[in-house]
Amino acid sequence: MSNEIQSIFNRIAPVYDQLNDWLSLGQHRIWKEMAVKWSAAKSGDTALDLCCGSGDLALRLARRVGATGQVYGVDFSPNLLEIAKERSQSQYPQPALAMPAVGIAWIEADVLNLPFEDNQFDAATMGYGLRNVKDIPRSLQELYRVLKPGAKAAILDFHRPSNPQLRAFQQLYLDSFVVPVANYLGLKEEYAYISPSLDRFPVGREQIELARQVGFAVATHYPIANGMMGVLVLSKLGVIS
Known about the structure:
Layout: H1 2-12, H2 16-24, H3 28-38, E1 46-50, H4 56-65, E2 70-75, H5 78-91, E3 103-108, E4 121-127, H6 136-146, E5 147-158, H7 164-184, H8 188-191, H9 194-200, H10 204-213, E6 218-224, E7 229-235
Parallel strand pairs: 1-2, 1-4, 2-3, 4-5
Antiparallel strand pairs: 5-7, 6-7
Helix pairs in contact: 3-4
């Protein structure tokens, strides 16, 4: 399943940002800014963005941590990482011999097996990635491992709303807008994964329970967009011994 999803994201990479704009009517920018705010990233921090895609959240984190901070953007799609790299270079152009004013490292890796030391990051985000990982508990466990004690993480994703009317509206929107737009772009099959991924994705309370099972002492789920979206905010308590 993970290889299949990886192939999908490699294929949609050229129109990924345009589709996100159309599918969310531009609202995804607001939701991503909320996630970055909830991560509590601040100047000088070392921050992590998992399933970074074309770099939206990582670039927002970079603005928060500033020139004294460092951001790592991780994704398993080399095509999306290439787009993220190009975007960061256009937003933060640097003379060839100058030290970069904003440190962003783009890393191709699996979020189920992160190439980082324990207790490395002050803050973390994930946007629209948890729903697509092969093993959600393992992904949360890896996130817990690499966060420093006292660090926060914010995970943004689509959800099936509990309200039957909103659930029906969401499915109608997917069927009558998302699929035709994807079909127009020649990506109908690539976007067919959205509905089944929503059906199997744990709801807010289930996400909180999964997070607590891997060690997060504080876990809060904030439903947004009438429950069609949500942000899971996690805190790793304790001190390094």
